[in-house]
Amino acid sequence: MDPCENCGGEDHRSDACPVPRCYTCLKLGHIARVCPDQICRNCHQRGHEARDCKDMKP
Ligand SMILES: [Zn+2]
Ligand SMILES: [Zn+2]
Ligand SMILES: [Zn+2]
Question: What are the entry keywords (predicted)?
Answer without folding.
Answer: Metal-binding, Zinc, Zinc-finger
